[in-house]
């Protein structure tokens, strides 16, 4: 909903500045009635209608949620989720400052990977090309949930339409963009590969002292360093973090020079590797539900959590599809879902 900007101060109190960007400032705000905290992005000048259309259209757990907008001819204020942990880029920088020169554990990287794939698949399903996917545009809530944010240069594509405008952050540009070629959803997958590389190495995938050097390194695929694959003969190194061959191969596939050879987000979600990670997450949910069953109580909060779980489960099943790689995981997820559903049906009378 878009409202006149003079109504903004009637609804919210500004607490403090929590971010600054190229186009404006982000404030932590509090609603005067429900006392909930949100983030408000104040954009200097009039916001593009296409960005507002996109932000108000998208509703997904791993995409920033916009609640309402205020605007006039001079400025736009977008009220959205407040992500307490800030953005992924700053989290990586804090990790370096604290002396943790090893990347995130494989388990964390995989959990974040699945969330980003689910968010990106949803965005692409809605014919939206993000075009500025980078670690500073990945926001993190207090519970570890990732949110893809900042659709300021996003573009809605129709059919087989390609984008032509050179836009985005230099370090995350795909080779086809740096060469001035037409590009599509695969360019977002290249950017995702760069983000995963940062999680594992705490370094940008492609860097350089000058802009031209960065572009050259991208076009020639000159990575700052290789991601180390697990060496079972030497697991005592404290200087680096090592990862499984499956994860490293996935990142390398995203960073393929040829955009036609990069896997799409929905395709990856149907792979056996990602299906296995998704399954493990649902096994953990199932275990928590069994613990509740032992207690013998179901609260209204737990019922709401279950309803949310059901919606997310339906979307995951849709993404997993009927591919051969994921059919086994699909059946096990179905079994987990049935167990939880039967449990809540039995306990319905206690609510």
From TrEMBL:
<dbReference type="Pfam" id="PF00069">
    <property type="entry name" value="Pkinase"/>
</dbReference>
<dbReference type="InterPro" id="IPR017441">
    <property type="entry name" value="Protein_kinase_ATP_BS"/>
</dbReference>
<keyword id="KW-0418">Kinase</keyword>
<keyword id="KW-0547">Nucleotide-binding</keyword>
<feature type="domain" description="Protein kinase">
    <location>
        <begin position="12"/>
        <end position="274"/>
    </location>
</feature>
<comment type="similarity">
    <text>Belongs to the protein kinase superfamily.</text>
</comment>
<dbReference type="GO" id="GO:0005524">
    <property type="term" value="F:ATP binding"/>
</dbReference>
<keyword id="KW-0723">Serine/threonine-protein kinase</keyword>
<protein>
    <recommendedName>
        <fullName>non-specific serine/threonine protein kinase</fullName>
        <ecNumber>2.7.11.1</ecNumber>
    </recommendedName>
</protein>
<dbReference type="InterPro" id="IPR008271">
    <property type="entry name" value="Ser/Thr_kinase_AS"/>
</dbReference>
<dbReference type="GO" id="GO:0004674">
    <property type="term" value="F:protein serine/threonine kinase activity"/>
</dbReference>
<keyword id="KW-0808">Transferase</keyword>
<dbReference type="InterPro" id="IPR000719">
    <property type="entry name" value="Prot_kinase_dom"/>
</dbReference>
<keyword id="KW-0067">ATP-binding</keyword>
<dbReference type="InterPro" id="IPR051131">
    <property type="entry name" value="NEK_Ser/Thr_kinase_NIMA"/>
</dbReference>
<feature type="binding site">
    <location>
        <position position="42"/>
    </location>
    <ligand>
        <name>ATP</name>
    </ligand>
</feature>
């Amino acid at each position: 909903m878009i409202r006149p900007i003079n109504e903004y101060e009637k609804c919210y109190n500004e607490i403090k500045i929590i971010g600054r960007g190229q186009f404006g400032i982000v404030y932590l705000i509090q609603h005067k009635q429900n006392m909930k905290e949100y983030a408000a992005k104040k954009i200097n000048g009039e916001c593009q209608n296409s960005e507002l259309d996109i932000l108000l259209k998208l509703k997904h757990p791993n995409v920033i949620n916009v609640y309402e907008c205020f605007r006039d001819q001079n400025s736009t204020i977008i009220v959205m989720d407040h992500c307490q942990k800030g953005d992924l880029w700053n989290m990586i920088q804090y990790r370096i400052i604290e002396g943790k020169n090893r990347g995130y554990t494989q388990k964390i990287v995989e959990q974040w990977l699945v969330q980003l794939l689910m968010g990106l698949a949803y965005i692409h399903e809605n014919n939206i090309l993000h075009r500025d996917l980078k670690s500073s545009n990945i926001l993190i809530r207090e519970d570890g949930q990732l949110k893809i944010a900042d659709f300021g240069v996003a573009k809605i594509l129709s059919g087989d339409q390609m984008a032509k405008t050179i836009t985005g952050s230099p370090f995350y540009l795909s080779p086809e963009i740096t060469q001035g070629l037409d590009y599509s959803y695969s360019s977002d997958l290249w950017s995702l590969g760069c983000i995963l590389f940062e999680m594992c190495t705490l370094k940008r995938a492609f860097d350089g002292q000058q802009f031209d050097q960065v572009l050259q390194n991208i076009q020639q695929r000159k990575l700052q360093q290789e991601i180390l694959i697990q060496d079972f003969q030497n697991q005592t190194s404290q200087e680096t973090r090592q990862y499984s061959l499956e994860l490293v191969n996935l990142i390398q596939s995203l960073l393929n020079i040829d955009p036609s050879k990069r896997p799409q987000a929905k395709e990856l979600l149907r792979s056996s590797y990602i299906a296995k990670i998704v399954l493990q997450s649902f096994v953990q949910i199932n275990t928590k539900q069994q613990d509740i069953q032992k207690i013998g109580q179901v609260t209204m909060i737990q019922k709401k959590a279950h309803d949310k779980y059901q919606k997310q489960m339906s979307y995951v099943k849709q993404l997993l599809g009927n591919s051969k790689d994921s059919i086994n995981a699909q059946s096990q997820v179905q079994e987990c879902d049935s167990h939880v559903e039967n449990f809540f049906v039995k306990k319905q009378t206690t609510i």
